[in-house]
Design the sequence.
């Protein structure tokens, strides 16, 4: 939910309704002191330990956990600096922690802007650093959650022709995503369905379902084996002043047998009952 300062009136009721054990936020757009004053207390009230990495610009990432938050690390191994701008520097785009035995990362991958922009090469370098960070740990028990700014396949955009010569869909980006070596939990659960997580604010894009699937939960084999449900909470994209992204939710069994009962995501709209 981008811009957490303005999205708190939506984030907090969503947390209360869904009650997730671990929450990954991206694009918080807050420096550390403002996050600690505004956001951390209301998360602590709800039983979360919180790790935040932000510098007050357009990025910023956080993890909130009610099942442990250990070995917190801000950034990536050999993370590249953004070359675009007056002063190249490393941005606040990744934070990792161990939560209930899983290594969880909240990431906000650079946009890339356009394939001929230096920001695009920065994006590829950043994904390479993410790959190195995953490989240096235990990939099997890794979970990477976030705005990847990459649609894995043409099935993850409403019209592939609309994105020709654009970022998010180029072969190098998609290959960099595959090279992470992790499994796409939502797509594995729904291999043939039309699923998006992002819809532009332009009039009608959401209601016409003209979107992209760029917010992903990627995980290693040990985590994927425990996945009971994986879905996009499209309902959270509705209403007043929403984010342009919808949350992705994954339910894991406590035991590695993949059996936690009939978990079915709620429909995005109430079903109509036929009257006779």
Sequence:
């Amino acid at each position: 939910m981008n811009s957490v300062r303005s999205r708190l009136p939506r984030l907090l009721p969503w947390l209360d309704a869904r009650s997730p054990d671990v929450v990954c936020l991206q694009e918080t757009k807050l420096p550390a002191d403002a996050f600690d004053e505004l956001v951390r207390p209301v998360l602590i009230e709800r039983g979360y330990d919180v790790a935040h990495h932000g510098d007050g610009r357009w990025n910023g990432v956080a993890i909130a956990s009610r099942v442990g938050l250990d070995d917190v690390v801000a950034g990536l191994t050999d993370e590249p600096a953004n070359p675009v701008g007056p002063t190249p520097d490393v941005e606040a785009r990744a934070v990792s922690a161990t939560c209930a035995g899983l290594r969880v990362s909240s990431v906000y991958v650079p946009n890339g802007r356009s394939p001929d922009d230096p920001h695009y090469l920065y994006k590829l370098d950043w994904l390479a650093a993410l790959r190195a960070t995953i490989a240096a740990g235990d990939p099997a028990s890794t979970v990477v959650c976030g705005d990847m700014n990459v649609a894995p396949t043409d099935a993850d955009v409403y019209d592939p022709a609309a994105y020709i010569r654009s970022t998010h869909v180029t072969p190098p980006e998609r290959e960099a995503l595959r090279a992470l070596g992790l499994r796409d939990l939502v797509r594995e659960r729904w291999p043939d369905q039309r699923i998006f997580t992002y819809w532009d604010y332009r009039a009608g894009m959401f209601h016409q379902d003209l979107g992209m699937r760029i917010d992903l939960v990627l995980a290693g084999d040990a985590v994927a084996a425990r996945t009971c449900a994986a879905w996009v909470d499209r309902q959270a994209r509705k209403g007043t002043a929403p984010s342009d992204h919808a949350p992705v939710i994954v339910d894991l069994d406590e035991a590695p047998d993949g059996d936690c009962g009939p978990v079915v995501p709620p429909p995005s709209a109430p079903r109509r009952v036929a009257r006779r």
In short: The CA atoms of residues 39 and 45 lie 10 Å apart. The chain has one domain: 4-252. Residues 4-252 form a domain with the Deoxyribonuclease I; Chain A fold (CATH 3.60.10.10).
